[in-house]
Design goal:
Helices cover about 35% and strands about 30% of the residues. By secondary structure, the chain is α+β, with helices and mostly antiparallel strands.
Length: about 160
C-alpha cells in the first residue's frame, strides 16, 4: 500500500508548522536545492501512527540545526545556550505536530504514539520510507520522512499510543 500522503502534502504541512511554530512567517523552510549533499544528521525525532495504516513521521537534522530550532521555538536569542533536554523537547514537539498532521490525512482513524528523540532513527526492519522530503531551513539540512510500517509494529515494540 502506498503512503496516503503526497510529497506536496508533506511539504505543505512542514511549511505551515514552521511558519506557525518556528519562524512566525512563511518562506523560511524550502525544498533543498539540487544537487543534495550527503547530510550530516545526528539528531532524529519521530512519532509512530498505529491503525489501519501504520507508519511513522520523522525529522532528521544536525545537532546545530536542532539547537537553532529549539531557540526559535523557545524565543531565545541566536547562540543562546539551550540545555539538551530543551532541544529534545523542541524536536519531539515538531515531530508530534508533523505526525498529527500526517494522521489527519489518513482515510481511517489512527492513534498517534509519543514522540521520541535520539541520535538516529531506530534500526528496525519493519518499515520503509514512502515519502522523503529534503528541506533547507536557515542553511540547515532537514529531512522529513513518512514511513510505512507493519500494522503490528506499534503493538510489537511496546510503543505507547494516544
Amino acid at each position: 500500500m502506498d503512503a496516503p500522503v503526497a510529497e506536496g502534502e508533506v511539504l505543505a504541512i512542514a511549511a505551515q508548522i514552521f511558519a506557525a511554530l518556528v519562524d512566525g512567517e512563511e518562506g523560511r523552510l524550502v525544498p533543498w536545492p539540487a544537487p543534495q549533499p550527503e547530510p550530516e544528521h545526528d539528531v532524529a525525532a519521530w512519532v509512530d501512527v498505529a491503525g489501519p495504516w501504520a507508519g511513522r513521521a520523522s525529522l532528521e537534522t544536525s545537532s546545530d540545526a536542532a539547537a537553532d530550532l529549539a531557540r526559535a521555538l523557545l524565543g531565545l536569542a541566536p547562540g543562546a545556550p539551550v540545555p539538551d533536554d530543551e532541544v529534545a523537547d523542541a524536536l519531539g514537539e515538531l515531530a508530534n505536530v508533523l505526525g498529527g498532521n500526517v494522521k489527519a490525512l489518513l482515510p481511517h482513524y489512527g492513534a498517534l504514539g509519543l514522540p521520541r528523540v535520539a541520535g538516529a532513527l531506530p534500526g528496525d526492519d519493519e518499515g520503509r520510507a514512502v515519502r522523503r522530503v529534503p528541506l533547507a531551513w536557515h542553511g540547515h539540512s532537514l529531512v522529513l520522512t513518512v514511513w510505512e510500517r507493519s500494522p503490528l509494529a506499534g503493538a510489537a515494540d511496546g510503543g505507547e499510543v494516544r
